[in-house]
Design goal:
By secondary structure, the chain is of the alpha+beta class. The protein is built from six helices and seven strands.
């Protein structure tokens, strides 16, 4: 996935419905392999085994490398995409767009954009999916083992602004700036 020329590696599980998104610097074989290995390790750490990966044509370069790990890689034909992942990417982009229009900026730094994507993915994974594996446990809890803590995650939202006090003098001018 790319947003404003910033590239992300996006994955989603067919049955657990957890999505992962990682900022990547390029689409080389080494970068893609590292990203996939990290995702597979997360699943294995919680007792899940990845047996197949469905990917678009950009992953053709790693087809032989996946066979060594016992994971089959099915690559779509040219100009086709994996429907489930494409739907997830559309959902992510839509929610990032909703965040972006609520901010007072005309230009977004790459780091801010990446953090907006991470916030969206965090909240998408924090609630049970409609076609869920478990009725009350979120995909994030199943794979990562973390639950939502109201006092940590819900007190200050992503778009919350702060007033920061500057060192001042005795003149009658503003001493705080919006951050």
């Amino acid at each position: 996935m790319a947003i404003s020329k910033i590239t992300f590696m996006v994955s989603t599980s067919r049955s657990i419905h957890i999505g992962t998104t990682e900022l990547i610097c390029n689409k080389t074989k080494q970068t893609l392999m590292t990203s996939i290995q990290q995702i597979v390790r997360e699943y294995h750490a919680r007792g899940f085994h990845v047996t197949a990966i469905l990917a678009d044509g950009g992953f053709e370069c790693i087809k032989n490398s996946r066979a060594e790990m016992g994971i089959s890689l099915n690559v779509t034909s040219r100009n086709e995409h994996v429907p489930k992942v494409e739907t997830y990417i559309r959902t992510e982009k839509e929610r990032v767009r909703a965040l972006a229009v609520s901010l007072p900026f005309k230009y977004y730094l790459p780091r801010l954009l990446a953090e907006m994507v991470y916030v969206v993915v965090f909240w998408l994974n924090s609630f049970p999916h409609n076609d869920r594996v478990h009725s009350t446990i979120s995909p994030r809890t199943l794979i990562m083992g973390f639950t939502i803590d109201y006092h940590k995650q819900c007190r200050i939202g992503f778009r919350t602004y702060l007033q920061v006090q500057k060192e001042g003098d005795n003149l009658l001018r503003q001493r705080t700036t919006g951050q």
